[in-house]
Amino acid sequence: MLSAILTKTFYTFISLMVILNYALLLIGSMARIRAKVQGRVGQPVWQPYIDIIKNYGKRTAVTHGVMFYLGPVFRLAGGLGTYLFMPVVYGFVMFENFSFSGDLLLVMYFIFFGQLGMALGAGESGHPYSPLGVSRGLAQMTAFELPFALAVISIVAQYGTLSITEIVAAQQGGWQNWVAFTNPFAMIAGMLAFLGMSMQNPFSVVIAPQEIPIGPPTEMHSAFLGMLQTNRAIFNGAKMVLFMNLFWGGATHKYLLVAILIMVVKTFLIYLYVNIVGASFPRFKTEQSIRFFLGVPTIIGIIAVILQSI
Amino acid sequence: MSLKDLVAPFMVWGRALQKPYTQKNPIITRPGADRYRGFHVNDIHKCVGCGTCEEICQNEAIDLVPVDGIETKHGDSGLRPKIDYGRCCWCALCVDICPTSSLGMSNEYIWIDSNPEVFRFIPGAENKTWDNSKKGYRRGEGYDLLEGQRVPMPMLSFEESQKTFIEMVQGFSREQALREADRCVSCGLCIATCPAHMDVPGYINAIRNDDMEEGLRIVYEANPLPASCGRVCSHACEDVCVMKHKGDALSIRWLKRYIVDRIYKGDYEKILSTGEAKNGKKVAIIGSGPGGLAAAYYLSLLGYEVTVYDSNEKAGGMIRYGIPEYRLPYEQVDKDIDYIKSLGVKIVQNTKIGEDLDFMELYNNNNAVFFSTGLKDPYGLDIPGEEFPGVTSGLSLLDDVTIGKTPDLGKSVVVVGGGNVAMDAARTSRRLNCEVTILYRRRIEDMPADVEEIHESQEEGCIIETQAIPLRIVKGDKTRLKLYWGRAEMVTDPKGGRPRPVLIEGSEEVIECDTVIPAIGQQADYSFLPEEIVNNIKFNRGMVEVNEYKQTGDLKIFAGGDIVNFKKDAISAIANGHSAAKGIDLYLNQL
Amino acid sequence: MEKDMERRLYADTGAPEGSPVVNPDPRTLGDSSNIQLFNEQLKLLNSGLTEEDRLNFCDTPPEVIKPFRGHWENFLNWARSESLWILGFGTGCGAIELRPLMTSRFDMYQYGIQPRPTPRQSSIFVIGGYASVKTMKRIVRSYEQMQGPKFVLGLGSCTINGGMYYDSYNTVNRLDHYIPVDVYIAGCMPRPEALLAGLMELKTIIKEGRGEGANKYAENFEWYKANQKRIIKDWNMPDYNW
Amino acid sequence: MNIELYKNLENSFGVTSLEVKNRNQSYIRVKKEMAVPLITHLKLVESYKHLSFFTIIDQIEKGEFELLYMLHSYSRNHDLGIIVSIERHETDMESIHHLWPAAETYQRELREMFGVEFPDSPGLYENFCLEGWEGIPPMRREFDTKRYSEDTFYKRPGRETNDPAKYMKEKIYPSEAETW
Amino acid sequence: MVEKGCANLFTRSQKHINDNPKLPPIVNGRAKYNLESGKYLKIWQGPQHPGITGNMSLELTVCGDEIVDCKTHVGYLHRGFEKLMERRKYMQCFPIVCRIAVPEPDFNEYLFAATVEELAGIEAPERALWIRTLNLEMARLASFFMWLGGQSGSFGMNTQGQWTVTMRDYILDRFEELSGGRIYHMYMIPGGVRADLPSGFENRLLDTLKTCEKCLDDVELTMFNNSIFKKRSKGLGIIHPDIVDEFGITGPNARAAGFKRDLRKDEPYLKYDQLDFEIITGIDSDAYTRARVRLQEMYQSIDLIRQILAKMPKTGSFFTKLPNVLHWNIPEGQIYKKAECTRGEYGYYLRSDGSDKPRRIYVRGPSYTHAVSLMERLCIGGNISDTAGLMVSLHTYPPEVER
Questions:
Q1: In terms of residue numbers, what domain contains B212?
Q2: E130 pLDDT above the threshold of 70
Q3: For residue range E370-392, what is the model confidence (pLDDT) as tens digits?
Q4: Domain spanning C2-231 has what CATH number?
Q5: Is the interface score ipTM higher than 0.90?
Q6: Highest CATH level, class, for E85-355
Q7: Any chain D CB within 8 A of the CB of C187?
Q8: If 0-12 CB within 10 Å is exposed, 13-18 middle and 19+ buried, where does residue C215 land?
Q9: Which of B290, C105, E34, E133 could be bridged to E271 by S-S, CB 3.0 to 4.6 A?
């Protein structure tokens, strides 16, 4: 029993390390790609590491109360939760995390949970822009949750299960089995919602530097910020893995390394897609963003659900 | 919303396929442009420390500080600009206005330090990496904030001038004077060089402000003979004027003259201070030349009772008798002297000390004696034939003309010498309708006479033979005399002195002429001094030795003018007179 | 023994050679008697605030935080120097040259430098030239909100000795009297390259452990406060902004 | 400005001293009491609709402030400067914010910089450029900005300069006997 | 559609000020909000804020996302130029005037030189006038590029901003070559210009223009045809034509409201009367139209520079001798000179009392009205997300407000 727990812990740790490092490098390299669009060279790929080290290494930190402390912790918990309850690479014990005991609803809950924790922490900070950012964030989240939920419902209806592992399993056997192709409307609704979820343009209303200088984390600094950055990496990784699992057939192969490589390629492409849109468009206003999600994506989502129910 | 609006934004990704705009290693690959206004460079050997850069700097970023290895000398203050980069705004007005064009800017622009105190430096004197930079901002062609050209002085044409004794230089009009005064940068380098240390920027500023009275006051502070000096001063100041580096020096002398010309003689009393109350002490002055008159003026301002003894019919000494009228009209000399007289200075004319009056009588009856008797005895040529009639001297010619005699010069004249007296003699002869040849031992650039004097005499038709050494004079056939002279070559002095003329053996030429006028210098005559005084006073090569207050070995006796200084010009004599007046005041107050 | 060691180490980093003003000594700078007098009147108890507001702010002066020793601190210093976050506050005309530096022509991101919109997260404060009194007030507040170790870069001549506004009634002449400055860059305007070179110099300083501006500020806190209050006549903000 | 208009204004508002700079620009003077009626008339009737700027010139020698309203008429293509002199010690002037809302800003600035009051102008006493300013308003002529700066902001010590003429006297002619 | 839109917003903001009983009373011309009520939040946008142009700040009172009151605070960059110039000689004022508008210093230089020349009775040579015209157009282009970056950035679109600031930098390279300075050119001195064009300058400038034009095409395609950009900027900050004169609005802001006003045409200065161009106007008077007008003016500016290079005399003197600038007294008098800068009417008023220092120099920056009174009104009723975009679309430079 004990050894099983230890093994699980060890595997989880490895899985976390892999996703953390991968996500950090992904963020770094994506920054370079975006820099290319802007006509410049861009930061080194390992820049996110240095930033995190620096932030943890700051000498001073100011707290605005208990919730302020807990905000980043909740956020990190949200990120970890999202990540830990789904399989990263299908078919390998080392990377299946706790997917046996979690399902889609839990993951969706964790996506919310982090945001809420952050909202509480930011609210405590006392900076007027933080609550503004929080209210924008929550409003937008509610909006993009709708198409996302519809897409999820559609998939659930399609496969009759809430377990991510099973959903991934059902997509095996070639690209034609991926949800993206078997249930394209759900994919479109989900990928549009993903744009909102990843807080890139045009849905970057939460941090919008020109409007509410970076919103909720305005007052976050030093180790708090370091924690947020760590979470940002893990959470980003988790979201991409989730979408890969849901729509793009997950990642699997008989060799672990190849499977990981497939995961890397797929998530990279998903992230690239977000950035291709992000670099091309300006930012929506909050109400425009809400209006957007409640429009086309929701309709597509409803269509997806209807198609699956009949 | 058209489809284009949805698709077009993605075209930004086209940029990702192109070369980035980013400059690689910009610090190295992108030096400042050729004209970039970076850090200052200064050629400190060209710079004269005039401070014009400090004057124009609106940030007060420039200080003038002494620099090791740069000496203070005439025309160079020995100071160099030190720039505070905590103030500078890199506008380069200092570069634009620098009269010597020594200041410039390199195209270097990176200076970083964590100590704020280090951002001050003397360009050119501290080894900086950009010192030898050829690139960077320099004042370009066709753009100049200062005017390098003088306002031309209206003058009689040379055709006219060689026929008449009317004053040749006509003086500035108001507009011309304002324009000329406007060129001054008020650096004050000239003050040190002027023997009398006149406040030149001060009175030029007064001209600019059109305040002649103030100008006159400033002038009289250091020079009581401005009408004369404004015409015939040797203007050492103009040699060191910073504007000379841009082209022409400022016409300082003419501007001084302009001030005096603009004020009527009768108004002097209202404008100038008449000095302190009389203190009852008496001072005798021998010689009414510029030295004597200056001493008389300042002593009388200090309240002394001054009597000037002079051997001539009229006061003025050399400035009246040694300078021809076309350069210095007599009424201008009178203007100066009359004002000095009006202060209560007594001038006793036609009294030669030693003959008409005994020196000891003066010595005993006065609290102090000042003498500036000048150089009166001309040197002879020291060649055979000197004693022939028709051989006269420059000074006696000028003397004669002044007192109204018409000397008998014949048709052609040879003047020997290259000083101002020689030029005056030559040009006076020219005005008496003679053909004039000037013989000079050295080259034309060695001539001690003023450049414009030489130029003008040439223009008026005097022929100048240089490197010519007179050999002998014999009676002529058609003319009265024949002057034989030989060519000289310049031999460089191994010790580094100026080159010496050495006769080329066998070269001999002859000029037929009626008169030969040697004007090769004069010496002093101390015969009026009694034995016991001569013993007290020290002499050195014909000159009286004095201390800084012009006091001789006999404490009661002061001396000045050509007999004590080497410059031998009017302004030095005036300065001597002024110093002596101070000295006498000090001496008498100590008693 | 260890304590001695520590003190010496700190002293070493605290007073680097050749940079006397990075660590200004209250006794040598300014008019010392005046400052003394001022200190007595100086009530560092958030006296500029209302009774009510005072509860919201901290009321203890900043403390000197000793650096770690040895390789760990070196490593952190390396990370600090390679991840410089500039506070996005264009205090003067110097901000105009930050724009090209941030954008593609000079691309400071490639050197690990990026702008940051909030003082809490920033580590360098680029003072873009002259600081008017009104801006100085904001500079002080922003600076104090930044988390140590923090660095200040004085851009342009105006920060050194007043620059071309030396006689203006509304701009300070010497920045180092109000906040500790690590690097000065001469120029008006310094080109982006000069600014970049300044940032590189700052990196070296941080790596060598000389970037102790925040501790200097804490050490001479009262002196800085006195100077600040001397020019900011309507002091209606907290004395302790952290 | 055409003479007709000037004559007109002269009769109705007592406008004096017309100064024509060029085809597009002239200046007139008017008494303090008539200033705002004149400006109102110009704006509403004579098409001088654009207030280019409004500022003050301190004539300290005469003891007065000259207020300069620069109006522009697009239809006439003409700038008209209206100069109003007010006493330096009686510094209030009728506000024109009801004619141009933008004038409120000018008046705020002028109150701060010159201490001239414009009763009823909104937000007149709010800070504009300065904060916590004490003493005489800075744009007045008697305010010496350099002295204020030296007194208030520390100057970096350690600078000294030399006057070339004085320095040369010390170096070459240090003697008392010299005549300068 | 336009008229309706305008009227709508105008009445709306008027309503907010006057009629709405729910809104608080107005005291001393300002609305008083009870911040204790919990309904309103006071937030400061600036001076330390990425969405503000330069160093200024907006004090916003918001109710939710809607702005109910706005107050502009300036003075963070106040250096007292007008006072400083009163104690500097005329030539010493020359280096400091360009600091008044940092991104576009040349108009200051030109206007200062022009006022001084006019009062002193000096005429700059023909070629100098052409070079000045060239300089002003280059400055206009550079300044607009900077603005374009700001406009795209203010809506969160960072890509185009990066390009345009680089384009501006390329123009600054040309400026550096020409004048020796990147930002502060200090080139147009009273009496002419300080140096001739360097050799080969024309060709390099034409190359730069080509690059700029290409970049502008890209921006036109990706920004002005961007659905979200359109969505955000259309209908934002509508300036009703009626309030243009009330608020002293000039430049592209007025032209976007349909006014055909351009000082380059109305009162041609320098060599504009010899150049061939049309006044560009818009109809809708919202942020998008203003951006369009400015974009077209950039194309126009490129065209004008090409015209200038073609028409300019190739040789000739470029500087008239001045009196000695160390003591240059200028005859008594007054003059107001203005020029059409990127933001509108830029003016210098110079009063001389016959001494060597100006008696009074007043600088009229167009941002003075745009950034303060106009901004305060336009903000009301808007969304806080839009303040940055609105502010940039008015194209304000704080340093010319406070000087």
A1: 158-269
A2: yes
A3: 888 888 888 888 888 888 888 88
A4: 3.40.50.12280
A5: no
A6: mainly alpha
A7: no
A8: buried
A9: E133
